[in-house]
Amino acid sequence: MFNKIKMPELKIGEFTAKIPIVQGGMSVGISLSRLASAVANQGGIGVIGAAGIGMLEPDFNTNFRGANQRALRKEIRKARSMTKGLLGVNIMVALTDFYELVKVAVEEEIDFIFAGAGLPLKNLATITGISANKIRTKLIPIVSSGRSAKTLFTYWAKHYKEVPDAVVVEGPKAGGHLGFKKEQIDNPNFALEKLLPAVIDAVKPFEDAFKKKIPVIAAGGIYTGFDIFKFMSMGASGVQMATRFVATKECDASDEFKKAYIRSKKEDIVIIDSPVGMPGRAIKNQFLLEVEAGEKKPFSCKFKCLKTCDYRRVPYCIALALTNAKVGNLSEGFAFAGANVYRIKKITTVKKLMNSLVREYQKAAKASKKFKFVVA
Fold it and tell me: What are the φ and ψ backbone dihedral angles of 208, each rounded to 5 degrees?
């Protein structure tokens, strides 16, 4: 019977996730300790989004680095108090306080650091000054091509005589900031189905050289358990999913933010030009329409949180807009979301969502055996 088909476990170094699902880290307060711990309790990997995590701290405007570090430490400890499962943090390489936040995460002995929006060329020992054999945390880069994976792994192998323990390949159907040019987003040559095999091929020589399994985790637009089965049949060791977890009771976003997901229609999902110089996928609303029409949203930047943001020229502060959205003030902000967000129709729980994904995976696995289905 299909309900006896087990999903493969996701093994990263000495860590094992019973369910091969990584909850994507959603920053500026969307995935914090509550959501991350709930996913970890169900056997997946729960992830706290670190970018802008200190925005609601009272001293953020005068001490944003200290506020971010304090808030991250607090959320990791809160999550640890609610679960014995696996936890990670997502820290964008493009953050001006990337290294400080990495140090906090390592000090708190987080299981994983997922690092995207740039290649993390320094390993954890170099960043923290802590001996590698005393660091339990695994740094997992997020890449958008086989080429970037090869570049990063080659650099690590040459300079540190080691390579990352896993890698996430994120396709152009993801939400938020995208590692693609606008013209690549809908180009079939850049679909996740094309990117995944290229990254697996890029990593394989390093598995042989370092004599270890390096899991490749597929991400970007994965919505159902059938999707999970498809990409794992193509060689992925696990998947990363973010958008589905927003519409859960445990998600740390406001109810209004979650309602924006449920109310969205396919035509509402748009690609925007983010102030940080990257395209991003979001749900169209009045705020974005006003920006598109040329309206500037006043703000004062006492810091520069992202290396690529030219705050003197941009029409609005994206960190402020996303914080406003997180707390429900969508007239002064907007919600990032993945390409399949319009398919979400109701709020559920993390447990129910994870169970449904497992059941769908099992059905897909049963069908593949019955019809000798082979993924092209």
Answer: -65, -45
Rounded CA-CA distance 147/159 in Å is 18
Strand ranges inside 13-126, DSSP E:
15-17, 21-23, 45-49, 86-90, 112-115
> What is the per-residue pLDDT across 312-363, written as a single tens digit (0 to 9) for each?
667 677 777 888 888 889 988 899 999 999 999 999 999 999 999 999 999 9
Let me know if residue 270 belongs to a domain. Answer: yes
DSSP conformational letter for 308: T
Here the tokens at position 256 are 């209004």
Of the candidates 163, 171, 162, 122, the one whose C-alpha atom is nearest the C-alpha of residue 142 is 171
- What does the mean pLDDT of the chain come to? 90
Walk across the sheet containing 269-273 and list its strands.
176-177, 279-283, 269-273
Predicted model pTM: 0.91
Residues 63 and 96 reside in one and the same domain:
yes
Question: What pLDDT is attached to residue 299?
Answer: 62
The answer on 13 and 143 residing in a single domain is yes
Residues 31 and 149 in one domain: yes
Tell me: do 351 and 312 sit in the same domain.
no
Q: Identify the residue with better confidence: 326 or 209.
A: 209
β-partners of residue 271 are 281
CATH code for the domain of 184: 3.20.20.70
Are residue 34 and residue 73 in the same domain, yes or no?
A: yes
